[in-house]
Amino acid sequence: MTAKEILAASFKEIAEKKNIEKITVKEIADNCGYSPATFYRNFKDKYDLIAWSYVQESARIMGKLNGEYVWRDTLLDGALYYWENRDYIKNLCVHTSGHDTFIKYMAQTNISLLKAEVRKSTGDKPIDKQTELIITTYCLGTVALVCEWVAGNIEATPQFIAQVFEDSLPVALKQCLYKMR
After folding, report:
1. In this predicted structure, what is the pLDDT of residue 180?
2. Which domain holds residue 144?
3. Which residues of the chain have pLDDT under 70?
4. How many CB atoms lie within 10 A of CB 165?
5. 75 and 24 in one domain?
6. Calpha distance 69→151 (Å, rounded)
7. Torsion angle of alpha carbons 158, 103, 117, 180, nearest 10°?
8. Cα separation of 113 and 64, whole Å?
9. Cα 26–23–99 angle (5° rounding)?
């Protein structure tokens, strides 16, 4: 594991039990046997670590897409990731410098990754304004659903949530995302 991965795992371990806004860089570093200087060589602050970690996990899930691993599998893996990390994700949704900071970042990351998948499926053609807004609407909705779900306001299995994600996917996106690779 890299220093970044170790620091991210340390932070996640602490954040599963403690309000994120109360976690210090020293605490993150001490928890994994590093110094704060090592932390700052890798991240500018804990929010930079949060962003890096979410992008890494999202890219790992999306990176599996190929002819045999399809969009449906991505939706299920995403739902499973959120469920298995629900205490951490809930903390991120509720306690990151104002209620919506991580939520906005999460949505922007998902929008960027979904746009990249749509561009791949169309041979890297530019995305028109309508499709761009459809992607944005879909991602904002799914992120809001995830936050409500991990907060315990919606009772459902990861499989059910993945099915809801799939069923709510707009036709224009389904046509792109379910094309043969």
Report:
1. 44
2. 65-177
3. 97-100, 179-181
4. 21
5. no
6. 29
7. 20
8. 13
9. 145
